[in-house]
Amino acid sequence: MGPADLRSALKGLPRAKRDRRVLVDHSTLDDAGVFAYRPGEAWVQTVDFFTPVVDDPYDYGQVAAANSVSDVYAMGGRPLTALALLCYPERGMPPEVLPEILRGGQDKMAEAGVSILGGHTVRDPEIKFGYSVTGVVARRRVLTNAGVRPGDALVLTKPLGTGILATALKQQRLTAPQIRRLTRSMTQLNRAASEAAVEFGARAATDITGYGLIGHARQVADASGVTLRLRPEASWLLPRVLELAEAGVKPGGLSSNREFFAPSVDAGPVGGTLLEVLFDPQTSGGLLIALPARRASALRKALDRRRVWNVLAGEAVARGPFALELVSSS
Prior knowledge:
The protein has helices at residues 3-11, 57-74, 97-112, 162-170, 176-187, 191-199, 212-224, 241-246, 252-261, 272-277, 296-305; strands spanning 22-24, 33-38, 41-50, 78-88, 115-123, 128-138, 153-156, 204-207, 226-230, 265-266, 287-291, 311-318, 324-326. It is α+β, with helices and mostly antiparallel strands.
């Protein structure tokens, strides 16, 4: 569902009475809900499922699992349990496909230390797979999207462009090595990035998924009451993303993201294809982490030690007329 449709639906809901133990809910458009269950600790809950983004069923299961646990990592939490969600055709699929999807998801959840407790299946003409995930987080370590302060540095932990590349894959425009590179990015857990963010005193984080970098950064800026100043450059992108975007390879969600979020962006000198790619809907993207500027170098060195790709993406400033400002990286 596009951002405009979702905002419209949520706006029409009556305000429900909020339990005092609810620490984070949908009101700030955060990555997951957080519920205090005992002194000092809280549950983190999230759910995500989607149609195949790669051809290999095992890899699809892995991507779906990595994407589903990512919201828990974005809150600074540790995922514990999961329930699988599966929509699957009644006929027409080779018998080996479903076991491979489930095996891929199981293996990735095992890597994350998550126990799959069960799940639910529905007959559907189109495959959809994912998980509802519950995790735990120390209440004093919760990373919400509302904690950014002016002067904080912004660190991004995965390159961008998975939506464009997945669309290119459907159009058979990717080579085998390029497919492997795309799959490797989407199956990489955000665990190491999350642990480093908590260790170095991050104030806020979000994972970059369906609304693209611009959309999720906008939600952080609005929730925190700041403006995020980003310094995008081509080195932030996966190989061939610019080339393919210039050739017109773009997922449908990119246009809806651009239409909804562009009015909140002062694009400055950034335009053309690079600007377009910043609206690209990501699958299992990285984290955008905000932390005091004096700690950014130490965080980046820790990410390097953990072999986590990262860039210094910009900084937060006092709220201005736009939620986001794009400036030259030079």
